[in-house]
Amino acid sequence: MTASCSMVDFNTGLLEFLYSSPTAFHATKNIAGKLLAASFIPLYEGDIWQLEPGKRYLVMRNDSSIIAFVYGKSPLLDSGIRMLGAHTDSPCLKVKPRAELNRRGYFQLGVEVYGGALLAPWYDRDLSMAGRVTYRDQSDQIASALVDFERPVAVVPSLAIHLDREANNARSINAQKDIVPLLLQLPAEDAALPDFRGLLHAELLRQQPDLAIKQVLDYEISLYDTQPPAIIGFEQDFIASARLDNLLSCFIGLQALLEADDQVSSLLICTDHEEVGSASCCGAKGPMLQQFLERLLPDGETRARVIERSMMISADNAHGIHPNFMDKHDENHGPLLNRGPVIKVNANQRYATTSETSAFFRLLCEAAEVPVQEFVARTDMGCGSTIGPVVASEVGVKTIDVGSPTFAMHSIRELAGARDGWYLYKAAVEFFSYSKAPFALISRS
What we know:
With about 450 residues, this protein is an alpha/beta fold. The protein folds into two domains: about 5-90 and about 240-430, Zn peptidases (Aminopeptidase), CATH 3.40.630.10; about 90-225, Aminopeptidase i, Domain 2 (Roll), CATH 2.30.250. It is about 25% helix and about 25% strand. It has helices spanning about 5-20, 25-35, 75-80, 165-170, 195-205, 245-255, 290-295, 300-310, 355-365, 385-395, 420-430; strands spanning about 40-45, 55-60, 65-70, 80-85, 90-105, 105-115, 125-135, 140-150, 180-185, 215-225, 230, 240, 265-270, 310-315, 320, 340-345, 375, 400-405, 405, 415. The strands form three sheets. A nine-stranded mixed sheet has the order 1-2-3-13-4-14-18-16-17, sandwiched between helices. A six-stranded antiparallel sheet has the order 8-7-10-5-6-9. Strands 11-12-20-19-15 form a five-stranded mixed sheet. Helix 1 (about 5-20) packs across helix 6 and helix 2 (about 25-35) runs parallel beside helix 6. One of its GO terms (molecular function) is aminopeptidase activity. Its cofactor is Zn(2+). Keywords: Aminopeptidase, Hydrolase, Metal-binding, Metalloprotease, Protease, Zinc. Its EC number is 3.4.11.-.
């Protein structure tokens, strides 16, 4: 099937999605909005489900993970399920529960580092805050709402070079002391601190005046860079943005699923907490996907047979070979930006790719007229991982790990090729329209 979205239109939509998704909660809300606009039917986990072939569904968990399912008209035992997985979270700074600090009359917030963040780029950025706020309403019921301050409200100033002459040679960053955001200057050093929950309360009412908030009880708030995503480079070769890892893959999966063939069954799952191990009720190591499949196929034997006929593409960004640090890559496995999606391989199962899943993906790319690359880490260096091995081990589905090559992964502003997301989207469209069980071509003699 030919992808309908041009590269220009794809990247325009991608930049809008990145800009409007400062947290996993906002990303999930935006994905759900696109699906609802395309007539996907919302499901609620506490309800009884009656799923029907030919219809499209979505279900969310924790406001930060989502499954979208195209229930194809072809029997599941004939075609299996085409699955594509990504994750909604990104490394960041998260505000602590008792965050208020007064340091010499400056109001600051204590933060935790979420995931394996590259900390140095957080300095001297115009930062805002966004996330989920849970409150007591006027009827003393608990409710939640999303908030996004949008405007720059915080900064982490660097220490001047005059006070740290070794800053360019041997500077280390203490996450407890050195990366504390500054919000405002108090009228006096001994002045009372603003109540952060009160600030959240006021901001929610400013944005949603009809919200019946009696008391803010708790929150999950992250800081983010307000600089918008952009197409950059002398020839517009690159996309620069926060959260490319891994909202780029979420957007790829979403756009491809919106074009999925109604004859076969396709599933998109975007889960939270990958950056901290996926071990949560809404993470890939949790039961969300398994429980969805159990409700779709209550009979265990039928479910096992369908899973055997299915395949998962785990999409997460790959490390492009950095021209300033080429020795950090294996000499034969340094993916280039704008040269196509990367098949990620690791002998120790940090990636779930097998020869069969990679062979099938190569056929998809060939059919979509998309170039393909490979990544293997240097044998003397460690290797990252993603949701692929987790889903493969929890569900038992054959899986491949792929991704768009990226620079500055886990920085506050990452860099990807302007063509690579579109390339992977084209391959995903081909995947979601493949009419047979993915491994029907493989001889088992």
